[in-house]
Design a protein that fits this description.
7-stranded parallel β-sheet; 3-stranded mixed β-sheet; about 35% helix; about 20% strand
Amino acid sequence: MWQKKPLLKDDDIGMDIENTTILVTGASGMIGRHLVKSLLKNGYSVIGLARRETELRAEIKNYKTYVVDLADREALEKIYADNNITHTIHLAALAHTKGVIDLSEAAYRQANVINAQNVFEAAKNTNVLFISTVDVYGFTKGVVAAETEVHPISIYGKTKAEAEEILKKQGGKFSIYRFSPVYTEEVKRDIQKRYYLKYPNWAYIIGKGSEYEVLNIDKAISAMVDWVATKPDGMIRVIKDENRLETIKVIEQERKEGRAKHVLHFPRWMVLAGYGVLMITGRNKYTYLLNKAVHPLRSE
């Protein structure tokens, strides 16, 4: 059964597991499901917000779930008023296009900007962790850091960058984590585009192979769980695996498992030349995709 706990003093937040209650938005998503389970396993009380029922039910000890639309500000404020929430991890966003009907700019703005602002305002008296994306950097050369000026190109990157600014202007106790592309052993769609033209049969290699910064779900979850035990410092951090994804090694493994039956090899000079020609059209979502192959992101 859920037990209401006494509010914490500022000095105690994040230090007393028994009296820490974490609200997670996007609790039914790929990352959210794993995060909720890990937080519960670590002894925390968790409130999950989602637009649909999660696989975890309300009868689980120390877990409460709400099916709620984050556009409903009054519903959010009531949830915070009815529960002694100490921490908020905002994961919910419109990111993946698979199975999504409305991919208009208005839909992205609602999900990633307006809904985020609703959450930030409702959570202003808690510690807030906002999960953003490295897509906010846009076109990059060289090594980026938290203080690197962002120039997002995709609507996803633009709306996440705008949400970051909203949180920074609001102030309070917060952290911002920019995630590299996240994958699990079962779900790899965020990284497959970096070595597949058409999954599961047509793979590609540029030159002698490329290396990309990616983020395994386990490391992503560990970073968020560890954050709960810290005091937010208003800093931005890039979260990534220690080792980069090497396309040649990945494709070799894919072939052993019966995929990547056809592998196309593109000389790097050819890709660079094509990129230069395409850039005549300007910096747009098409040139941005090719930019990721020509100049893979490198962060501190």
